[in-house]
Amino acid sequence: MSLDLKFTYTEKKDTRSGFGDGFLEAGRKNPNVVGLCADLIGSLKMGDFQKEFPDRFFQTGIAEANMIGISAGLAIGGKIPFAGTFANFATGRVYDQIRQSVAYSDKNVKICASHAGLTLGEDGATHQILEDLGMMKMLPHMTVINPCDYNQTKAATLAIAEYEGPVYLRFGRPSWPIFTPADQKFEIGKAWKMIDGKDVTIFATGHLVWEAVVAEAMLREEGIYAEVINIHTIKPLDLEAILGSVKKTGCAVSAEEHQVNGGLGDSIAQTLSRNYPAPLEYVGVNDSFGESGTPTQLLEKYGLNAENIVKAAKRALARK
Amino acid sequence: MEKQSIEQLQKICTQLRRDVLRMVHAVQSGHPGAPLGCAEFFVALYFDQLRHNPDFKMNGKGEDLFFLSNGHLSAGWYSVLSRSGYFPVAELKTFRKLNSRLQGHPATHEHLPGIRVASGSLGQGLSVAIGVAQAKKIDKDDHLVYVLMGDGELQEGQVWEAAMYAAHHKVDNLIATVDYNGQQIDGPTDKIMDLMNLKAKWEAFGWEVNEIKEGNDMKSVIAGLEKAKSLAGKGKPVLNLLYTEMGFGVDFMVGTHKWHGSPPNDEQLAKALGQLEETLGDY
Ligand SMILES: Cc1ncc(C[n+]2csc(CCOP(=O)(O)OP(=O)(O)O)c2C)c(N)n1
Ligand SMILES: [Mg+2]
User: Fold this and answer.
1) Measured in angstroms, how far is the CA atom of residue B176 from the centroid of ligand 1?
2) To test ligand 1's pocket by mutation, which of A36, A37, A39 has the most ligand atoms within 8 angstroms of CB?
3) Could you list the residue range(s) of the whole structural domain that residue B153 is in?
4) Looking at this predicted complex, what is its ipTM?
5) Do residue A39 and residue B186 have CB atoms under 8 angstroms apart?
């Protein structure tokens, strides 16, 4: 089967490497950029920055709560701290520290969260956080970003260094298609319409943007024209882009590597119900924890791959 | 269970090491280093020390219980649990695979016998073990609660909250052990976040500290665990500082953090297994 994809790739890479490379570049551009990591420097790809700027990098040991507090302090002192660990330990483990010392106090801290979602793979449910977007988007002042591939993650990392305020940046572990341009400009809060369509809108974030691109081609083969919108910024949400598209297509699907409860789909549902009620189907994890397995197996078992987006799109269409 | 000789226990250790290596090799993921270093501890505990029943009951009343706080040692724990009769040894081949009870980090909702709480996110096991020990006290159940933690894990603040609590509440039916291998993911603990004088720290928190200097020698481990038992019930929680070497048993893996979370490839596996005799039959 060869699909006529609107976006293609020649190379795969992990989004965490996009973060690591963007972080190094941000450090070269701005001497105020500093880094912290809780015994996961290799996993977070923060090693190049540490080597080049040893005086601006702090190993905290396995002590995430302390890392968030130190980051808030560094921000008070005028630094721009990038604090990195696995997404589970960057959110759930330290929620109150983020809430009080970072979000409520409006500190310019960048929480950099790798290995998010099911595609973390074999480590299993203890590490596969699927609730982080929800927790982070509920915090006032917090900006929440979940880029889709290496290039977009790198661009997002550079963009958040220039933005003043608390940010949650979510990325992942698996090797993933690089299908967005290397020279893209990342605009926080501005959704990117990747593919024009008329029948149904697919709002996707993170790794599932690629699955949405595949799903669009599969739907097109059946004569269904889907619009694909890349929601890299979950908060603030681009209401204009969302409403504009659904007013045209009349129905939508949300796709995310996250719980349905509290995720991107919930934010879109709120937008639609307030402004333009329309059928919305959810592709996400339905109130269960993950488990060990390969990323591909897990996306299939938990209903998060392109085939599931296609099915959801048809369900949405049938409800129009 | 009838007592086994030191030689027999050593043979089980060799098999545990083979199991661990074959398990992480088969899925090309997981953590071989620390379980190799804790083989003697696991085997001494399950085959010599614990008064336990492999017909698993969640509440563990009337038994000694063990908790693994450093959940990434799952491969070693699963091996010793299966080899001591908690579940079929053949199930080890499902480790970290889809639809397995042997999750990457220990989990309860798949109902793997032997597991009473999930672990993997570090720093939480000591608190849980203390709670269980207190439940035993309420029930006048004079069995012991054991918990294993990593040394890097001690960098988590919750460990010290728990340490303070256990001494304050005189939880003396608790024997905690620190896998003192001096290594963590990013490097040696003294380079990453120096633990400094651990013995003095735990003593200052009100614990009885028992050093087991030869953590990879079966005789010393058993003697050390016997000593720990004798220190229990005297008003203070007991801490074993278990000196081990990460990767022990395989010459090219020993003493480095490099094998904390990296599986061997085919060639490395063959080389490693060549140094470990198959004593009980591979799974
Ligand atoms: C709360 C938390 N933070 C980070 C991690 C990632 N992690 C897994 S093992 C490990 C190192 C643990 O060091 P140690 O306890 O000494 O275990 P060893 O490396 O000796 O096996 C880290 C940082 C984790 N599992 N949990
Ligand atoms: Mg260690």
Assistant:
1) 17
2) A39
3) 6-273
4) 0.94
5) yes
Quick one: what percent of chain A has pLDDT higher than 90? 99
CA distance B218 to B7: 9
pLDDT tens-place string over residues B139-157: 999 999 999 999 999 999 9
User: What is the per-residue pLDDT for B111?
Assistant: 87
Whether the CB of B31 is below 8 Å from some CB of chain A: the reply is: no
DSSP codes joined into one string, chain A: -----SS--S-EEEHHHHHHHHHHHHHHH-TTEEEEESS-HHHHT-HHHHHH-GGGEEE--S-HHHHHHHHHHHHHTT-EEEEEEEHHHHTGGGHHHIIIIIIITT---EEEEES-SGGG-TT-TTT--SSHHHHHHHSTT-EEE---SHHHHHHHHHHHHHS-S-EEEE--SSEEE--S-TTPPP-TT--EEEE--SSEEEEE-TTHHHHHHHHHHHHHHTT--EEEEE--EEES--HHHHHHHHHHHS-EEEEEEEESTTSHHHHHHHHHHHH----EEEEEE-S----SS-HHHHHHHTT-SHHHHHHHHHHHHHT-
In CATH, what number is assigned to the domain containing residue B242?
A: 3.40.50.970
* Interface contact A294-B98, CB threshold 8 A: yes
Domains of chain A, by residue range, sit at 12-177, 192-318
> Is B223 a domain residue?
yes
Chain A CB within 8 Å of residue B156 CB: yes
Instruction: With 0.95 as the threshold, say if the pTM is over it.
Output: yes
Tell me if B173 sits within 8 A of B204, measured CB to CB.
no
- Condensed to tens digits (0 to 9), the pLDDT of residues B112-132 reads 999 999 999 999 999 999 999
Query: Token digits for A78?
Result: 């005028």
Q: What pLDDT score was predicted for residue B21?
A: 98
- Residue whose CA is at the smallest distance from ligand 1 atom 25: B121
Residues of A with a catalytic annotation lie at 64
Cβ partners under 8 Å of residue A138, min gap 6: A262
Residues 192-231 of B with CB under 8 A from A: 192-193
User: Chain A: nearest CA to B28, how far in angstroms?
Assistant: 9
- Place B3 in a pLDDT band, splitting at 50, 70 and 90: confident
Question: Which of B112, B154, B193 is the best substitution to test chain A (most A C-beta atoms within 10 A)?
Answer: B193
Q: How many domains does chain B have?
A: 1
Domain A12-177, CATH homologous superfamily name and number: Thiamin diphosphate (ThDP)-binding fold, Pyr/PP domains (3.40.50.970)
CATH topology of domain A192-318: Rossmann fold (3.40.50)
Question: Using an 8 Å Cβ cutoff, are A118 and A304 in contact?
Answer: yes
For chain A of 320 residues, list the mean pLDDT of each consecutive stretch of 10: 93 98 98 98 98 98 98 98 98 98 98 98 97 98 98 98 98 98 97 98 98 98 98 98 98 98 98 98 98 98 98 98
Establish if B153 belongs to a structural domain.
yes
Q: Do A39 and B185 touch (CB under 8 A)?
A: yes
Q: Residues 271 to 290 of A: which have CB under 8 A from any B CB? A: 289
Contacting A residues, span 107-126, partner chain B, CB-CB under 8 Å: 121-126
Residue of B nearest to A42 (CA): B186
